[in-house]
Amino acid sequence: MSILKNRNYRNLLIFLASLLCGYVVYTLPLAGLSEGGKISLGIFVVAILLWVTEAIPIFVTSSVILVLEAIFLARPGGPLNLDRGGYEIFTNAFSSPIILLLLGGYALALTVQKHDLGSLLAVMIIRRVGTRPERILLGAMTTTGLLSMWMSNTAATASMIVVILPVLKLLDDGDPFRKALLLGIPFSSSIGGMGTPIGTPPNAIAMGLLESAGVQISFLKWMLIGVPIAAVIMLIAWRILIKLFPCRVSVVDFDVSAHRSLNPRQILVLIFALVTILLWLSTSLHGIPTSIVAIFPLIIFFGFAFLQKKDFSELGWNVLIIVGGGIALGVGMSKSGLTDWMVARLSLEGLPLVIAFLIFGLFTMGLSTFISNSAVANLFLPIALGFAMFSPQWIGIAVALSASLAMALPISTPPNAIAYGSGEIQIKDMIRAGGVISVVGVITVAGYIFILSRILP
User: How far apart are CA 320 and CA 102, in angstroms?
Assistant: First the structure.
């Protein structure tokens, strides 16, 4: 019993038990599933258990997936009939163009954060929205959403919380509007991330899996799809928060005019960031792939000392490995026939397409409420992409967007945890507001993606 009380030993036992469960599933007599499919199913089960329990860091679980696939699926003459070196179909997932795109995005976001550009830009926007409470909330949410399109939702939330503190100090302790502000910032950081491929890991995972299936989605196309729906859900969330937590005063007379102007170095960072973003959006004009454009921030910001050598370790390498592991898992499930086998047993025949989108969205959002949305995307996207009734790009986008709408609990996202840590938010407040916004958001996404799937190729 003393061993079970030690966290390290307990996690080791969970890890070993997960491997054992994967092996037991592999030995089951499952009709219609090939040898390779059984191995993939065993690996899938191991991934589920390790990602849900977090007995080991979730990026380490991605590495476990790669090792198991290389040993049991990619061996010469093995169940997939691969030649020597066939393991590269799995290792290539970790060198996907999506990985480079994310890496450049992290370099861009880290530079903005290190030079305090996020907070300064937030102040510049907030001071222009006026003094009416609902306008202040909308300005704070919009600014947070815009920041989270280009930097991590945690960094966007932290930057915005600092800016909004002077407003909180002007409100009475019992004013419900304090909760609206503190909840609006983390909620909008999750919603804003839906707008770009680098805004949140599920977006990148979806793009990587779609690319491996032969479906290319450009940076601009994702934004043309993601930004409008993010804006709509942001407005919905704003109205819900105002309704649930009305302000007791009609005017909040605050002053954020005492802020520093942009210094020359910050102006250069802003210029380089805008150039990078414009290059990402105009790939069809200049022909440079977005993954290559993503290397420019690494060259500029590290080469000219906007970032230091020690900052290199802060570039979100754990997320890159998580994304790579998810793509590798999807490749294994597809190549082994596991995806087709699962799809055949999850019949959605006869359901209206919009209802099917809604089911996938609610399931994804529900799971993401309790475990990492990256883990959910890794597990669920390969299955969703296997349904012949869907266009792969639309179900992939729908699932990715739905994964960002889990916001009902402090454990749902790091920004939610930041808001809860303020001591002013109770769990019932987060469930009440976040739960409604999550469900309404998924319904909105399902309807939106259904309409796009009808009118666009």
Answer: 7
